[in-house]
Design goal:
This protein is mostly helical. Helices cover 49% and strands 9% of the residues. It has one domain. The chain is built from seven helices and three strands; from the N terminus they run ααβαβαααβα. Helix 1 (2-13) runs parallel beside helix 5.
């Protein structure tokens, strides 16, 4: 997990300011009707966390497995909505969020440097819930689960 956190902080988090500047430069040079971002591009987070009336609609597109937290499943378990399963799911998600806290803190510090507020949730959740619309690519076999 340490290597994953390191990569997330420095490959995705540290690139936010440059990506944000590029998006804003393009918006200043010509009209932009829509911004489409793929997971795990975080460069639109400063816009997404700011006033909605100062930007065009932003659509996220998931091209990797969905990593969003849910009470219906944990990080390692199969979907389980029994009372015991829901408790296990909650604990697995809590442990994952705690382990990922250094990357969350780092990303929030980078966002603060861009003048943006902190993320309201875990970064993987924000990737899905902050855009105005989020489309998750999938395969038919996953629709049956």
């Amino acid at each position: 997990m340490d290597l994953t956190i390191h990569y997330f902080k420095h490959v995705f988090g540290d690139t936010i300011p440059d990506q944000d500047r590029c998006i804003r430069q393009i918006m200043a040079e010509r009209p932009v009707n829509l911004i489409l971002v793929g997971v795990p591009y975080l460069g639109a987070f400063p816009l997404l966390l700011g006033p909605k009336n100062n930007r065009p609609p932003i659509v996220g597109c998931g091209v990797i497995p969905l990593l969003m937290t849910s009470v219906d499943f944990g990080r390692r378990s199969q979907p389980d909505t029994t009372p015991e399963g829901l408790l296990q799911n909650k604990e697995e998600n809590r442990r994952f969020e705690a382990a990922f806290q250094p990357a969350t803190d780092h990303t929030n510090a980078v966002l603060a440097g861009c003048g943006a507020p902190p993320m309201p949730r875990l970064v993987f959740d924000c990737i899905c819930v902050l855009p105005d619309l989020f489309l998750q690519c999938t395969g038919e076999v996953f629709e049956l689960l």
